[in-house]
Amino acid sequence: MDLLQALVNGQSSDENTRKHAEEFIQNASKINFPAFLHGLATELSKESNPEPTRQLAGIVLKNSLNSKNEEINAGLSSQWLAIDEAQRSVIKDILLQGLSSPAHLARHTCAMDVACIGLIEIPNNQWETLVPTLIENIKSTNDFLKEATLEALGFICQEIDPSIMTKYSNQVLTVITTGMKDPNAKVQLAGTRAMGHALEFVKSNFEIKEQRDYILKVIFDNANSQDSNVKQVAFECLVKIVTLYYEFILTYMIDLYNLTVSVIEKDPNEGVVLQAIEFWTSLAEEEQLLYDELDRKQLIIPQALTQLIPVMLKTLTKQEEIDDGWGVTQAGTTCISAMAEVSGDDILPHVYPFIQNNITSPEWRLREAACIALGSILQGPTNFNELPNLIPHLVNMLKDPNEMVKDTASWTIGRICNHQISAIPNYLEVLIKALIEATADPVSKIAAHACWAIHNICQAFEEGPIGPISSLAPAFNPLAQCLLNAAHRPKPDEDDRKLKTNAYEALNSLISFSGAPVEPIIEILKLTLNDFEQSLKLSTNNPNLNTETYDNVSNLQALLCSTLLAVSVTIKEAIEPFAEFMMTCLIQVFSNQSAIIYEEALLAIGSIIHALDVKFKPFVPKTLEILSKCLVIVEMGSVTSIAVAIVGDIARIMGKEFTPYCNEIVQLVLSVLKNPKSSMSSKPNALSCLGDIALSIGAGFGQFLQIVMPILNQASFIPVYDEEFLNELRCALFETYTSIIHGLKSDEQSAQIQPYMGDILRFVGHVYEDKDRYDTVTVAAIGLLGDIAQALGDPIRPALEHEVVKGFIKEGYEKNFEIAQWTQRYIFGNKQI
């Protein structure tokens, strides 16, 4: 078998044939990588080869040089750069020649490969002739070459650091705009796509009015193209411009309004209409982001409501008979929602008459449109006084003969319960009754929305009573029953999975915030444990479950874990009779490989620890076995962060009884700190965990100081560019040092920390130099200084009578931190500082 035959066989419908082909290709790559890449480029360029085979050769070439995984990608880039320059040049020349291929898939793939190599070499100051060559290509009369050249430029612009391409910006912009004006529609489309990718690095051009006018004129011209593909991509460029260059668009708003509204109202191509609506959605979202920076009179959306809202309301009446996903109505809904958020109460007089006039219309499209409009404007207004008048209509619509109207009514009620519940306290009982019935609707999507609405109602009670209703305790049993019924529907389709998730989330909120007594919550706990046991039996007794069933079981177990969490947090020590059963179920889920289940199970275990406190001790050995495994699987992200926090909780309840576990556990926690792949959130938690261990085992922590303190010192000075994380890390470091000192002091072994005081005080001085540090860091630093003085006494006092320490204490006084006075007393006594 040669390479060409392997590429042909790689497309075979026979699995065995494909497998052998893939093995041949993998071996060829390993035996002689440069020759392998040259062979792929050659097969891609051969006009006699079938086009799918040529395309596959190009895709294999690209995948041999590029990966979405950053670490793998860096290795592939190095492997390419290690090839002799002459060999690389031959491959690059073949690909550049392939840009003029008459075969669309082949030249498109060549463009992709040229860009892939360019993205490796250009940042390394190599292949300096690439961009000039591509620029020269646009002068050709070969439309195929021009199209593929623009595609290659677009791919490069899409991925490369904009600062690297700045020196080419004028030339690239000229080439792209030339392509956008080409009479050939395919060249024009490639040019317009390239413009969308290049917008980020033409900032300097966009800041010059004459050049900005020209760029926008070319985009406007293509937005009026007779070719719907060109037109749609031109509108995508306008959407991107709103986000990148908001400060410049006001001058062009009349043209933009006329252009977009004309398309929304008249264009037959849905893709174009969606982008025209997206322009206004993006503009509204950008103004939300800038809301605090701009004067309200400068905002465009609130001033344009009179013109825009009628246009957007019309889109709500263009529903399909069957809701099959994203369309004009959904886009219009999103746009109105974004406008409501930035306009607040100002949007109400523009939308409410439409709602009022159509919510009882005999025409289902108008009824649903009114309901959509209402649901769209709920997040933003704060004085929606007319809302209570609409509740009876919405309740009736939950029984509408049209399924889409019912669905939208349930969604709208959910939105009301999420954003405007304080406006309808007198209708809450009516809504709850209607929602209980709606959870039994045979249409799963409607029942799911009803569960979501109940969830939002329960969440609202976290803040206290709603109007005359002090709690949901009286309604707990019927609400819990309807949610459990909804969660146990037998059908496993996608809508039912959403229903199951919403039902459990609502049930958990009901448990947490209803104010119900312990007894009914215990009944839910029993049912949950029974379901858990059955699901574990299903997965244990059937190791060869198909993927869909396995995923359903995994998702169910994650939901059941979240219910155990809610129960433990709510009724606390009342879970004790069930704790062994709960822990048995939770430990078993770690035979699964799902990060989501690990997270949920760990959170549930943490809640049980907090509920039982020292009564959790019998479960510690098995729990630590699980936690030890979780501490090393950093690829699961937050799993490690949660696990390390739970280790700290266990140390706290165990006290000195935790000592036998420390040799292994301390090393594992330190590995989290040292591993560059550990998530950011896990590192402060690991520091806090070390502090918890030190507090728990007291002088026993002394044996670990030699390995722990150097790592803490290294963490103290590591460069961190995320401000929030930097402050969180520093706060955790101060608190860890404090805990170590307290732990040693409790056993009268404070002197063991003395050898490390120089490093600790250098860290204090380093942090003091940062005048932008958070107040929490300042308080932690001042507290640590006081603890050092209290623990070590006179021997350390001269080192603490330093300007940095005085500065921290003075800052504490200026900000009224009580800890400053305490620290001053231990360091300086009655002396003035």
From TrEMBL:
SUPFAM superfamilies: ARM repeat (SSF48371). Its main location: cytoplasm. Keywords: Cytoplasm, Protein transport, Repeat, Transport. InterPro entries: ARM-like, ARM-type_fold, IMB1_TNPO1-like_TPR, Importin-beta_N, Importin_beta. It comes from the Eukaryota. Residues 21-101 form the Importin N-terminal domain. The keyword Heme does not apply. GO terms for biological process: protein import into nucleus. It is found in: Cytoplasm. GO terms for molecular function: small GTPase binding. GO terms for cellular component: cytoplasm. This is Importin N-terminal domain-containing protein. The lineage of its organism: Eukaryota, Amoebozoa, Evosea, Eumycetozoa, Dictyostelia.
